[in-house]
Amino acid sequence: QVDAVRVYVNSSSENLRYPVLFVVRQQKGVLSWQVPLIFRGLYQRTYNYQEVSRTLCPSEATPETRPSDQIIFVDVASMAPFNIAYELLVTRLENFQLETNKAFNFTASPSQPQYFLYKFPQDVDSVIINVVSDAAYPCSVVSVQDIVCPVYDLDHNVEFNGVYQSMTKQAAITVQRKDFPGDQFFVVFVIKPEDYACGGSVPSSIHGNANRTWNLQRTKNLQVTIVPSIKKSVYVQAMFFSFLSFLSFYLGSVVVAFVHYIRVQRKASAGRLTPEHGSGIMTSSHPISASTPEGSSYGAIDESSSSGGHQLSSPEHRPPAGSDTDSSVEEESDFDTMPEIESDKNIIRTKVFLYLSDLSRKDRRIVSKKYKIYFWNIITIAVFYALPVIQLVITYQTVVNVTGNQDICYYNFLCAHPLGVLSAFNNILSNVGHMMLGFLFLLIVLRRDILHRRAMEMKDIYTLDYGIPKHFGLFYAMGIALMMEGVLSACYHVCPNYSNFQFDTSFMYMIAGLCMLKLYQTRHPDINASAYSAYASFAVVICLAVLGVVFGKNDMWFWAVFSMIHVLASLALSTQIYYMGRFKMDGPDSDLGIFRRAVMVLYTDCIQQCSRPMYMDRMVLLIVGNLVNWSFAIFGLVYRPRDFASYILGIFICNLLLYLAFYIIMKLRSSEKLLPIPMFCIVATAVVWAAALYFFFQTLSSWEETPAESREKNRPCILLGFFDDHDVWHFLSAAALFFSFLVLLTLDDDLDTVRRDKIPVF
């Protein structure tokens, strides 16, 4: 049993020049204070209290002394030239030691802090200190300190020792036995003189320019409960659950691959691989006519010649299918620089009805190498981006551990399970799904790539003109991006806060952008963006995200500039998509050509053909897309959301969903079909994304608010007693992204036996 004594003093004197000094001398230390007790706030404001109550550092009973033998000296002094009345009261605390699983209620104020003792039970290695209050204010601080005298229990020194949190209505601190060699600690409760640290305002009783306040009533009722935390076995169960859950995806993929292999072998043995199924020789495509049929739209051709234009290399001059080369001459095709080919491109790409053969005319090997650059570049970007991020979050975690300031990181403290130096291991472990499923997707793409290469080596060269061109570079880049999202999300959750949130979103931008590029590349393989321009665009977006974090809080000028850039970029991209990259703002005869061409385009497509645009499907998509993007720009300009990174991510996701929906609708409209696997992936994607978003919007913390206000949103674990709602979001979002990638990978498998001059472009 530990005895504790509390000293209460009161003085009616308001003379700050001659305060009454109280010094308490004990066996293990000295404690002193003055009355009136002065607390300092912002802008030189002071708060004076004439009643002070302090708990003296307790002493445990030893074999040499009994509990009643504690000797305390109290010295009272003042330099005042006149008498000062004071009151002194010493009492013994009855409930100084807190008990496990038992709630304890008490009251504290700025001049009357409280602290209590807790001892670890024999079978408990970790506990959670839960503190709640019905009132948000006054702002308070909860601190856990080692058994050392003196105890730091005033506003100006409570941060000097131990671990501490600011608090409004709720606080939670996880304490491990290994951090306290004596198996015991003090829980200290301090009420702050002002509420600015918790997001509050200046006390309403302060008016005008008054900088001095007397005996401000700032009493707070608190309840503390100390409960045992989870055992080590729960950590093991959680890790097994995390890995086994995603290993099941590997097992499912193996089963699907095995079933597919059996079906292919049966078809091969039954002799069902006929020329119509992609193993035969197709008839040569008809070249485009030099003149357009009378009465047709510009560049229109007959259905019989819908395959379009001259082949860039005749069958006799094509290299073997399996050959490859690093020649820079081949990568920079001479055809792209010839004026006749530029004219040919204008004729083909501006036809009313485009087919895949019109936009897959370049050498397959050259285009494939172009897309492989996406893969190698994203690996380089990932290494250079991730290394400083890892260094930074390690520094953040070290600062938290050394200073004890738990206001630096915005955890869900009611479900933050430490492991080693990490404060919230569960938030890091839950990101393993992104890495495991990203690697699985790479394996699936690699298998398809290998099978495609084998088929290319075994079949006749004319089979290149069947189905969607197989370029896997963007798929490899998507798999790496998914893995890096897991790595960077884990880094962010080492110490989540306002400054490093862009780490969690940077590769989300890249995933959304790569998915849109892949969707566009499917039927536009010759005119998709290069890796260099795509990654440069992502770099610009990330730079804007960083600027938004710095300037996007309340600066109107930033939102005006960003909204203008957003609208202009949408218009420029829409123009390139509408004209298949053939719109060039240059004049052949003078510098005024740019304006003349712009006026002609507006007149031709917006006035002369306003009732029916030349490319109706593209026009509908672009009108809806621009309306969505302009709405985002207006919303940002009006409301100026603080979470700028999520705002940009919302723009990317909405554009991706819009384009994917358009693609699927146009695919069905073109009498194409969805095979069982892509249909299953689409349904799984929708279901898993719906479940994931439900857990995403269960806000457990928010760095848009103060740390104390954020802790009001904290909630207990919901899965295995180890994972919270946000961890479930990590699990489900990883699966949802994986299924989304499979949708893009398998969506056009039904076209593998269809000639490219029969596959429409949209």
TrEMBL record:
One GO cellular component term: lysosome
Keyword field: Glycoprotein, Membrane, Signal, Transmembrane, Transmembrane helix
Keyword Transmembrane helix in annotation: yes
Composition bias type Low complexity, residue spans: 304-314
Biased composition range(s): Acidic residues: 327-337
Topological category with respect to the lipid bilayer: Multi-pass membrane protein
Signal peptide extent: none
Highest taxon listed in the record's lineage: Eukaryota
Gene Ontology terms for molecular function: double-stranded RNA binding; RNA transmembrane transporter activity
Residues annotated as transmembrane: 238-262, 374-394, 428-446, 474-495, 501-520, 532-551, 557-579, 619-638, 644-665, 677-697, 728-747
Compartment annotation: Membrane
Residue span of region Disordered: 273-337
Biased composition annotated in UniProt, kind: Polar residues: 281-295
Family: Belongs to the SID1 family.
Protein name, entry field: SIDT1 protein
Gene source species: Sclerurus mexicanus (tawny-throated leaftosser)
Gene: Sidt1
